[in-house]
Amino acid sequence: MSQNDKYLQIKQLSFPIYFFHPLPESKMTEIFYDYSKLDQPEVLQIIFHPRREAHTGPPPDNAVDNIITVDEGIGVHARFHLAGQEEPNILFFHGNGEIVSDYDAIGPFYTRFGMNFLAVDYRGYGKSSGSPTVTAMLADSHHILDAVRDWLSKSGHTGPLLVMGRSLGAAAALELASNHADDFVGLIIESGFATTLPLLMNLGVDVARLGITEEDGFRNVRKISSFTKPTLIIHGQYDEIIPVNTAAILQAQSPARAKEFQVVPGASHNTVIASAGELYFSMIKQFCNKICGIRAQRRRKIN
Questions:
Q1: Domain 3-19+29-292 in this protein, CATH class
Q2: Which pLDDT tens digit goes with each residue over 220-269?
Q3: Which is it for strands 161-166 and 89-93: parallel, antiparallel or unpaired?
Q4: CB 74, CB 67: distance < 8 Å
Q5: pTM score, two decimals?
Q6: Residue 253: how many CB atoms within 10 A of its CB?
Q7: In 3D, which of 201, 234, 240 has the Cα closest to residue 217?
């Protein structure tokens, strides 16, 4: 398989579609939903798998740590891998079993490709305090955005801002994209989900017993339907946790005129980067270049 064949674009799939009419961006205001059904203990123990940061040393080279206050006495850990002050900034929300230090080997690839990678944790994850809930995760994302914008401004980082979410992090990314579209030039979703009930049932949650309906869920389809700016969706061909057809729903419901749907052949839920290799970062960089009007520069060959 050649490099040009490494990524395949899905054009036709059979799947149920949930239609929502997007709001004009100029009329958008912050919308907060009731996520109490998802905050039931039986659901939280399935959705969140927090673990503490074992490493107590300094961050890697070209990275800085921040603790972002999201509530009184509660802060979440953020680690910013920096390439330059004029480079695109990617605000990243990770999966439910990850912490920001898991990306210490991945952040340098982003910076090498000319992107600032701003990874943030959830309550109870890594060096963060508190305990995670769905309500807190989505509410905290707004405080995180405020803090990131402030830090970028004070640090002289003038590059455009994108929001990205992987797996569970797609919910936080879509929360921000739908409520703060003016702050972002683009949206990236990797291994993300469209509808909530199929995901919960796949994870073993008895949604009928707990009285959870789709309207009690994350509402990712509704949220992406309000974001009209460039959107990139990446998914593993053989994702066993979030099947690829749910990513196709997000793609279908995105009203963005400039949108891409890339499926990584042979990849499962947690092997997208491993399967794609450097092409993963090249694809994201090319997406940034297109929407930011940056002319791609040839990387110098090292002899």
A1: alpha beta
A2: 999 999 999 999 999 999 999 999 999 999 999 999 999 999 999 999 99
A3: parallel
A4: no
A5: 0.88
A6: 20
A7: 201
